[in-house]
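Obj: model holo form, ligand = flavin-adenine dinucleotide.
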Amino acid sequence: MMKDLNGTGMAPDGSLAQMQQTDIVIIGGGLAGVSAATALSRRGYDTTLISARDQHPPDFRAEKLGQAQMELLRQVGLDATASAQMTAFDGVWLYRFGRRVEQGGAREYGSDYADLVNALRRALPAEVRSVVAKVTEIDCGPDRQHIILSDGQSFKCRLVIVATGLGDTIRKKIGVDKQVVSPAHSLCCGFDLARARNDFPFPSLVWTGERFDDRISYLTLFPIGDKVRANLFVYRDFAEEWTRRFRADPRAGLREVMPNLERTFGPIEVVGPVITRPIDLVRVSNPQRDGVVLVGDAFCVVCPITGTGIDKALTDVDRLCNVHIPRWFESPGMPLAKIAQYYADPVKVARDESAMKMSLDSKSIKTDPSIYWGLRRLRSRTLGQARYAMKRLLTRRESSTA
Ligand SMILES: Cc1cc2nc3c(=O)[nH]c(=O)nc-3n(C[C@H](O)[C@H](O)[C@H](O)COP(=O)(O)OP(=O)(O)OC[C@H]3O[C@@H](n4cnc5c(N)ncnc54)[C@H](O)[C@@H]3O)c2cc1C
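Output (holo structure tokens):
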């Protein structure tokens, strides 16, 4: 018989909650949750995925993935589904201070985030029990975990994985606090261009801010289907006048901070709305609890400018599902001592720490007026110019000897 979670033995609607047994309950059907459900089911665990909605809602989040992230998706068996849904393109032209400095050839992929997550959801193994409901009660302990849902269903399991992204409800229910490491750290703007993909000479573009005072990190243009998608990353506040003006007239806003962009590639007209997302850097403090682990953005949010959020989420899933859970399930119980191994995993710790450090350093090098960061800027610029000059020389030599 189920543990009497709400003191009545009843579901919130008054009906008798029916207890179901499963090995693992995952709460949150975003990229981390769906990847974990797929990986665990393929390993033979009885897996239940609880999502707040039947579809991941339209959401401006990661829209570009590289080969490293595709490799992490491969490790959880999702690379084929992901690449079938995404638009592949080969290479990026990198511009600094209005000049082309690099022309890479590596394959990358563009997609609307919700479309990607929903494609991965549709490809969930049939064995995954997928439930759309809200968690109303959660009770975790060193042996068994109990969950009651808004539709009256209840589950008893060995482990709960919290993959609820920025959602706070479950984190609060299990008593884990969050710490805002850097409030209003950056701002991401997403919009579509009027011109089609074939109208530009590059496969994709990264154009960095041209002046220090503008607090612009970079603009990236890349294809999703036939259209060209733009992500602009800036160190500005959602409420400031610059942001209001940019949203009202993005073409004029781009001309102001990137005057050489239109001179190089012609008119950059924007169609549709400019979606803006302010970013706080966040990590949870003291997350170790019996029977429950946090993954992805539910554990830690880093700056999208670094392009490390997906890496971090998939590293969590890979280490948890492919290394720790198989060991934990060899013996009874799910006490804190087991859970602590995941949070101390050297691969996870290194990935989280480097993503957070990169998030903080990337802002300082673009905006911090101190002498230390001024010197770092000078060094980065000088080394960068020397590296690009060397590359140009080698390319010229290669083409003259060919
Ligand atoms: C604007 C922007 C741009 C970004 N760009 C990049 C990029 O270029 N590269 C990169 O690597 N990363 C980028 N990121 C970060 C990346 O998108 C995230 O790190 C990653 O998507 C996190 O995945 P997740 O599964 O942890 O969270 P999510 O994908 O947010 O999934 C959380 C899920 O949990 C559900 N949920 C929430 N609460 C509950 C609840 N109580 N019960 C049930 N379900 C619940 C939500 O509905 C959602 O489906 C970007 C982020 C933003 C905001």
